[in-house]
Design goal:
363 residues; alpha/beta; Aspartate Aminotransferase, domain 1; Aspartate Aminotransferase, domain 2; 7-stranded mixed β-sheet; 3-stranded antiparallel β-sheet; 12 helices; globular
Length: 363
């Protein structure tokens, strides 16, 4: 099948859009396979969340455009004012809005690479230019190099912790050094979509730094830990002026009423949901350690996924996993991201990893 690209459009496009790649989600699994390509929560919704969705029946009416009830609950949860919270259709949409609010043609946005694949497109849609700073040898953000890359044309810097796809977290101390090095009038986006899965006490917690750094925006989501990926709802914590500016760039009425009801019910059941998170984190640690014991140089994982650095053998490893019933996410010739899903998937992953390792070009 021929996959269309923006350059195939029959009308004149902005050059940066014509040149951009289309974001593609993780591959869908064949029947009976484990879908571990999209960092989804393997647990089904709680009955209380399903009831809340079923009771949100007035879908002939527009939703609350500010998601006011969710906004107030999140504000109380973090001890901030409602004006410091903005709810959106997933944290990735809020990133698009934020970049559009600060960057224009001729401006630059700095981020690590490899990181979340939506970042380049968010920058391109704004007409700005991406400045990609390579990860360190151990697959972590090189924060000193990122700070050094900030120049006159820089309008925003994106930090992803834990980083998607390498699962490594940014430390609190190194992040504060980074914030001190970045000019206070440049936007810093701290994407914490996977923060609930962190068990490293030295990792950064953006919510604790908002008062100290007015140029900091913290982004979080209900998609991962709370298992609402199909409903698309996330939020940002920021200075009220940044919230207002982002709201100008946002799509009106973008967070539907079902998502708002599910988010409120999830906050009511937060401790029960976080128990599931702890289960996933324990599986992740066990999987990562067993992969290291086999000889794979897996970085310290802090998201709900692990990074398998397969280099030029990435496609081959992905194919072997697929044939075994594991749908992972390959990234060029860098490696694979494997979501931590059902317990039954772990021995399958380990079996493929053990069989392949002696045959790889780097073995």
């Amino acid at each position: 099948m021929i996959v269309p690209t923006p350059s195939d459009a029959p009308v004149l496009l902005r050059p940066e859009i014509a040149a951009a790649g289309v974001y593609r989600q993780g591959a869908m699994p064949p029947e009976g396979a484990f879908k571990l390509s999209s960092n989804e929560n393997p647990f089904p919704p709680l009955p209380s969340v399903l009831r809340a969705i079923a009771q949100a029946s007035e879908i002939n009416r527009y939703p609350d455009g500010l998601a006011g009830a969710v906004r107030e609950r999140i504000a109380r949860r973090f001890g901030v004012e409602a004006e410091e919270v903005l709810v959106g259709p997933g944290s990735v949409c809020l990133i698009y809005y934020l970049i559009a609010a600060v960057a224009a043609p001729g401006d630059e946005v700095v981020y690590a690479w490899r990181s979340f694949e939506a970042y380049p497109n968010a920058v391109s849609v704004a007409g700005a230019t991406s400045v990609r700073v390579p990860l360190t040898a151990d697959a972590r953000h090189d924060l000193p190099a990122m700070a050094a890359a900030v120049g006159e044309r820089t309008r925003a810097v994106i930090v992803c912790s834990p980083n998607n796809p390498t699962s490594t977290a940014v430390g609190a101390a190194e992040f504060e050094e980074f914030m001190a090095a970045v000019p206070s009038d440049r936007l810093v986006l701290l994407d914490e979509a996977y923060t609930e899965f962190i068990d490293d006490s030295s990792a950064v917690d953006g919510s604790a730094l908002l008062r100290r750094y007015p140029n900091l925006v913290v982004l979080r989501t209900f998609s991962k830990a709370f298992g609402l990926a199909g409903l698309r709802i996330g939020y940002m914590l920021a200075h009220p002026g940044l919230v207002a500016a982002t709201h100008v760039a946002a799509h009106p009425l973008a967070v539907n009423s079902l998502a708002q009801a599910a988010a409120l019910a999830s906050l009511d059941a937060e401790e029960e949901l976080l128990e599931r998170v702890r289960t996933i984190a324990e599986r992740r640690n066990r999987l990562a350690e067993q992969l290291r014991e086999l000889g794979w140089p897996v970085p310290q994982a802090q998201g709900n996924f692990v990074w398998l650095p397969a280099g030029e053998d990435t496609a081959r490893v992905a194919e072997a996993l697929w044939e075994a019933g594991i749908v992972a996410r390959p990234y060029g010739q860098d490696g694979l991201r494997i979501t931590v899903g059902e317990e039954e998937s772990l021995p399958v992953i380990l079996d493929v990893a053990e069989r392949l390792l002696p045959t790889l070009g780097r073995a």
